[in-house]
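G., the chain you wanted modeled:
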Amino acid sequence: MDQRQCLNNGSVFSMPVRRQTQLRVIEGSAWITLAGCAKDHILKAGESLRMPPNRLLVAEALQDCILIAEAILET
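Predicted structure as tokens:
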């Protein structure tokens, strides 16, 4: 299941990551924090991050942005 999120500059979005998921930034940039991970990430348009399952994602828009979270299907 894909989830698309449009964020205005400075707004914050959070969601539980239940399965391995790919987060893509379509437009703008965002500061990404994953619970249990020591390193935060800054993603810009065209960049992505593979997120492990069973984490909480928190994203803050550093400028207006569009994020898409896509579950990674295992084959």
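Residues 2-66 form a domain with the Jelly Rolls fold (CATH 2.60.120.10).

Shout if anything looks off.
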